[in-house]
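so ive been stuck on this for like two days lol. basically i have the seq below and the ligand is zinc ion, smiles is in there too. i just want the complex predicted, nothing fancy, no docking runs or whatever. if the output looks off dont worry ill sanity check it later, just need somthing to start from for the group meeting slides
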Amino acid sequence: MVSRGGAEAQRNTRERSSGIRILRVSASLRAKSLIALLLVTLAWPFFSKEDAGAWGFYGHKRINRMACFTLPPQMFGFYKRHIDFISDHAVDPDRRRYANADEAPRHYIDIDHYGIDGKDPFVEVPREWNMAVTKFSEDTLKAYGIVPWHIQVVYNRLITAFQRGDVDRILYYSSDLGHYIGDAHVPLHTTENYNGQMTNQHGIHAFWESRIPELSADANYDHGVGRAVYIEDPLSAAWEAVQASNRALDSVFNFERTLNERYPADQKYVFEDRGRGSMRFPSQGFTKAYEDAMGGMVERRMNASIITLGSFWYSAWVNAGQPDLDRFEQQDVSDSLKQILAAEEEALKMARESLGREEPNE
Ligand SMILES: [Zn+2]
């Protein structure tokens, strides 16, 4: 049972990078330039907080893996061949947050920030990036998160990768896209109260997105979500995911509050050994009671992530002209991509060392 996401989230935590400029250029797949970029970004003083890591390590990997099974036969062979890569790298974007200041706001949107005075934030915030920038400024958007727009960015990069027949980039962006789409489906990634810190529900983030799937998904979830479908308007689809997540927030908070009040205090938590010592987690009973109260919401949001991701992959491939994936090289990812991933790993290690601590559970 992987606990990393839970442990991360319990430390409360999200990099807030108000005013930090998003890197607009596509991440170069040349190891040299990436290493140079990492050295620059490593020098920046932004290591104050950590990510709450949506879906945890476990959930993200599962979403990316299961999405492969929604694909049509023309795509399935290729994705099946690389299913371990796509699954293993599902959580890379969270890890980049240690080493890249631009990364943090790509994972959420605190949409309620725009909903003051009873206004509907989904009406207030234009769906188009340029219109939203005109209305609120780029700095403000980045301060409160940009996940729906970043999904569109990565989606477009994936189309280009398909057009070029670039196996490395197809895998890299397919995997990344799964991460951001997964994040957009987590209710707590759409609010400033992302860890219950404003309502005395601290730790609810990991409870919802890590503890529940870790205890339930393997045994109880049914990911039969059907076939990927063509998405006419990916940006709208990304916004709809955010909106559906946001609508679920009342239940996420209210059921936890009610349950917390009535559940026997001495049965709420257990201590589990997670590598670096014993850590406190919600007990199985408490977790199940919360999940039952929400009526299977976590499973539904996970399944919505899976079918949406498969549909984004499929739509990118269609928009690229349905290239014959079987003619792409059959082998593993190239050495240059491996170099980049190794460089990211190295940057992560350096960032951790500069923080004077290790990642738990590794
Ligand atoms: Zn994330």
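The chain has one domain: 4-17+25-110+145-355. The pocket of zinc ion is lined by residues 53-54, 93-94, 107, 179, 183 (CB under 6 Å).
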